[in-house]
Amino acid sequence: MQTLWPNSIHFAKRTADPSARTISGSQSGQSLVEVALLTPLLLLLLIGVIEMGRFAYIGILVGNAAKAGAAYASQSLEDASPLLVANVQAAVNNDFQNNLPSAPTLTVQITNSCGCDSGGAITSATCNGTATAGTCPTGSHWVVMASVTCSGTFGALFNFPGMPKSLTISRTANMRVANK
Question: CA 146, 147, 153 angle in degrees (round to 5)?
Answer without folding.
Answer: 145
